[in-house]
Amino acid sequence: MTGTESEAARTRGEPDLHTLEQAVGRAVRAPSIHNTQPWSWRVQPGRIMLFADDGRRLVATDPDGRDLMVSCGAALQHLRVALAGVGAATTTLRLPDPERRDHLATVRICDGLPSHADSSLFAQLDRRRSDRRPYASGAPDAVVDGLRARAGAYGAGLVRVEGAARSRLVQALDDATAGQPHRPGYLAELLAWTHRYSGARDGIPRQSVPAAGVQGDGAHLHRFPAGTMPHHAALGPDAGTLLVVTTPADTPQDRLRAGEAVGSVLLAATAAGYATCPLSQALELSATRTRVRNEAGGVEYPQLVLRIGRTFGHSGPVPETPRRALSAVLR
């Protein structure tokens, strides 16, 4: 943009570049596969552009790029919440350039007031964590209904899986966790992103992963090598609610919107006092992905599994996972 355009933006009362960059700084608090943070951003007066960083895609873990798109969608939703929190209304153009597949979205500042649905979640951007420990209880129907409405605003479904179907879904997660190490390159990726160098600002630190020993149906919690966080194994199996995020089709835009729905659901659950954790492993293998689809009704396409529940009273807080410096993600 030219200096004249920048001055015009200031005259209209739009957020300045520093404010837009700070919004990106909050957007990158979104969850991502293995905390790879597979995104980059370009900030210009009145608009922010989101790009996929294909150099951070996990080729063995995420061969079709589903996890990358869902991760970027969550960051896109967090960006709008961050902008809404400073009073900026926005419009979003998804996949705006067919010649640039890495250009996932452009968010423009527009006239008017931000949506309450976004601004009400602003305080949760710095509070949300992925809590991989077992949960003492799940979420009641009223909470799930509210989260389902959040997902529906992005064209996504949110299917609660219960009873025998839940047991089969947990088995699919367990089978994926057991099967993935046999895929070429998977263990190397897992090692690279769970044993980062000292001072790294990405990847999964050991203090964010429960120690070994979860009993009962908690094997699906062990995607990562045993960490150092207490897990209270003696308290029994995980009782969290399992929700499957679904979309009507399986296009890149569907996956991006699924990620936006995930971002909204996770922030809303945090606001309601619930712990959350995304579970993607069963969607990364075609056989277990089919099983997840069957347990979620067999119609729409599953994009991610979410675990939501109340933590044990003496579990303690989850440490913050690192994030790359803003200068590293801005183009």
Description:
By secondary structure, the protein is of the alpha+beta class. Helix content is 35%, strand content 16%. It has helices spanning 3-11, 17-27, 66-85, 116-119, 141-152, 163-179, 186-194, 252-271, 286-295, 326-329; strands spanning 39-44, 47-52, 89-94, 103-110, 157-161, 241-247, 275-279, 301-309. Helix 2 crosses helix 3, helix 3 packs across helix 8 and helix 6 (163-179) runs antiparallel to helix 9. The relative contact order is 0.18.
Provide tags for this entry.
331 residues, alpha+beta, 4-stranded antiparallel sheet, 10 helices, 8 strands, 35% helix
The stretches of 5 or more residues where confidence is low (pLDDT under 50) are: none
Global structural class: alpha+beta
Mean pLDDT over the full residue set: 91
Output the strand order for the largest sheet. 1-2-4-3
Q: Which quaternary structure do these chains form? A: single chain
Count all strands and give the number: 8
Summarize the main sheet.
4 strands, antiparallel
C-alpha geometry: globular
Task: Output the radius of gyration.
Answer: 19 Å
Distance between the termini: 15 Å
Instruction: Give the DSSP E fraction (strand runs of 2 or more residues).
Output: 15-25%
Q: What is the count of DSSP helices, taking H or I runs of 4+ residues?
A: 10
User: Which sequence of SSEs, written as H and E, runs from N to C?
Assistant: HHEEHEEHHEHHEHEHEH
Helix content percent band: 25-40%
